[in-house]
Specification:
The chain is of the alpha+beta class. It is about 35% helix and about 15% strand. It is built from two helices and four strands. β2 (about 75-80) and β3 (about 85) form a beta hairpin.
């Protein structure tokens, strides 16, 4: 009897796990749809002060401690080659790049 109860509970847990996962993930996916062409932004663990020369399709601003483990303030640039660049907001080239993006209608979203 104990064996059948344990098997039943295991089966129930395995059945419910995908449903719970879908409940947590789906609001994030639907919230980001239509806002930018690429995937949801990554978590930047560190940010570079170096510039990059690649066309940007989406821009995000990650504030300090936005997500657990994402402790740096950074701009996240999603490029046409599907790369994400984490840039230090204090880098010399950031204001000029943000202004050029705004002229193209791309605004950084705070995440």
């Amino acid at each position: 009897m104990l064996f059948s109860i344990r098997c039943g509970l295991t089966l129930l847990c395995l059945t419910m796990l995908p449903l719970l996962h879908a409940q947590v993930i789906s609001p994030v996916i639907t919230e980001n749809q239509g806002k930018h062409p690429g995937p949801a932004p990554i978590c930047c663990m560190e940010a570079s002060r170096g510039a990059f020369n690649e066309p940007v399709t989406a821009c995000f601003e990650q504030k300090e401690n936005t997500f657990q483990g994402c402790r740096v303030h950074a701009y996240i640039f999603h490029t046409t080659s599907n790369n994400d660049w984490c840039a230090d907001p204090g880098a010399w080239w950031i204001p000029r790049r943000l202004k050029r993006l705004q002229q193209r209608g791309i605004y950084c979203q705070v995440v």
